[in-house]
Design brief:
102 residues; tt1808, chain A; 4-stranded mixed sheet; 37% strand
């Protein structure tokens, strides 16, 4: 159990103690999402993992806090990636089922 979500008092829809952030990348924001925004996320003390999900292809890039470092693992179609810090596994094909057209 991760506990109850803590909300920002000025923005009640904002959770300030996430364990996992999933960010779907867009063409026009990918550089910021993988750079400045990811660096900002890593400063959140409660955060254990960030999953960056491509919208153009079945691909997940997992950044996971491990002893103060943030090693990166990537998974593509036919692969799975374990989010050890919260005890789950992301199956790329399940996530993208019916999501990407021809």
């Amino acid at each position: 159990m991760c506990g109850e979500p803590a909300r920002d008092r000025d923005s009640p829809t904002t959770v300030v103690n996430p364990r996992l952030v999933v960010e779907v990348l867009a063409d026009w924001t990918i550089d910021c999402d993988r750079g400045e925004k990811l660096a900002h996320f890593r400063q959140t003390p409660s955060l254990a993992a960030v999953a960056l999900v491509w919208h153009t292809e079945p691909r997940i890039e997992l950044h996971q806090r491990t002893s103060g470092a943030w090693p990166v693992r990537e998974a593509r179609s036919g692969e799975r990636v374990a989010v050890d810090t919260i005890g789950c596994t992301l199956d790329v094909d399940d996530i993208y089922r019916d999501a990407i057209g021809p």
